[in-house]
Amino acid sequence: MLNIDEIQNGIVIDHIKAGTAIGLMDLLGIKGNRTASVALIQNARSHKAESGRKDIIKVEGDASWLNLDVLAYLDPDISVTVIENGKAVKKEKPQPPKRLVNIVRCKNPRCISSIEEECDQIFELSSNGKYRCIYCEQELQVKPE
């Protein structure tokens, strides 16, 4: 069995779909961050996951710079545990954010966000639970893998 030391202060992002944690680290900005100690566990055994496998990301230290709102959009099964002094003090499942900013791109070739380079890609959560581009109302079709 593989052993990874416990963290004293930080967060654990757990129940990530197996094989997707590296892409998730890119979107969250963890991969390029040089100030945080990060442990990436891939294909760990899981009794809850359909595939029987999951990924885990552990971030040691101050993780307040992370935009965790996007997690619920990317993978609704993800859980986040806050660790303080070696103890789990809070565990939660992130809720879908009301807005996605520069996380996904609008697929409409006529949308202003596709034409203008410096235009932010902004999608808002509609009443039907789907995200729509604020400029052209294009609905997001599929979540990224």
From TrEMBL:
Report any Pfam family annotated for this entry: PyrI
Q: Where is the Aspartate carbamoyltransferase regulatory subunit N-terminal domain?
A: 2-93
GO MF terms listed in the record are: metal ion binding; transferase activity
Residue ranges annotated for the Aspartate carbamoyltransferase regulatory subunit C-terminal domain, each copy included? 100-141
Recorded protein name is Aspartate carbamoyltransferase regulatory chain
The species this protein was found in? Faecalibacterium prausnitzii
One Gene Ontology term of the biological-process aspect is: 'de novo' pyrimidine nucleobase biosynthetic process
Keywords of this entry:
Metal-binding, Pyrimidine biosynthesis, Transferase, Zinc
One Gene Ontology term, aspect cellular component: aspartate carbamoyltransferase complex
Gene3D superfamilies with a match to the protein in the record: Aspartate carbamoyltransferase regulatory subunit, C-terminal domain, Aspartate carbamoyltransferase regulatory subunit, N-terminal domain
